[in-house]
Amino acid sequence: MDKGLLIVVSGPSGAGKGTVMNKLIAGGDYALSVSATTRSPREGEQDGINYFFKTREEFEKMIADNEFLEYARFCGNYYGTPLSYVNQKLDEGKNVILEIEVKGAFQVKEKCPEAVLIFLAPPSMKELEERLVGRGTESPEVIAERLARAMEELDLIDDYDYVVINDDVDEAVADIRSIVKAEQRRAARNIGINKKIKGVD
Ligand code: 5GP
Predict the structure, then answer these.
(1) CATH second-level architecture of 6-190?
(2) How far apart (Å, rounded) are the C-alpha atoms in residues 52 and 4?
(3) Strand partners, 74
(4) Is pLDDT above 70 for 1?
(5) pLDDT for 110-131, tens place per residue?
(6) pTM exceeds 0.70, yes or no
(7) Distance from the alpha carbon of residue 201 to the mean position of ligand 1, in angstroms
(8) Domain ranges, ordered by start, for the chain
(9) Inter-residue contact 68 to 33 (CB < 8 Å)
(10) Which of 49, 80, 98, 177 fits a 20 to 30 Å CA distance from 28?
(11) Does 101 contact ligand 1 (Cβ within 6 A)?
């Protein structure tokens, strides 16, 4: 069986990654990795579904035990991608999506150069601020910190493979699906297809 594609989606807090990811995985052909974090759960978030919520000690033990594909600190908390789930799903032939911040994304690219890095950007900073305030899940201090972080992250778009502007959720989802399809059609990802076509496999 062919291995799945590893797709990394980053973008500022409030860019709409969660909504876009939910629509994308609804089709069933993508597996969304569940990260571990030391951040406290937000209202309605469930352990094992949104995140694996860990104490700092538990997280640091996971680091020491090499359980992460990547991990990073973001606004005072640890976030990391558990390696086992990603490998299992890729081996099953599923396309795996990691919704992670920029430092983690570059760690993944370094370890897995075949990964596809997509930056999901808001149409403007003004829109981003309105979304973060409207979401009402963070204090004004946290919102200010996340906006400052967004300004830094936007400067890293050039290091990504693709950029998608989330002006309209359905269009952003369609863009990501097109990117994935094109990546799957790369000749370099289809080594040996000539033998299959010739029937000499
Ligand atoms: P939030 O606290 O809003 O859920 O997430 C904060 C940031 O951490 C977001 O940019 C999100 O993409 C990122 N993030 C979530 N999980 C991971 C992870 O496993 N690794 C890294 N590096 N970043 C993550």
Answers:
(1) 3-Layer(aba) Sandwich (3.40)
(2) 23
(3) 77
(4) no
(5) 999 999 999 999 999 999 999 9
(6) yes
(7) 43
(8) 6-190
(9) no
(10) 80
(11) yes
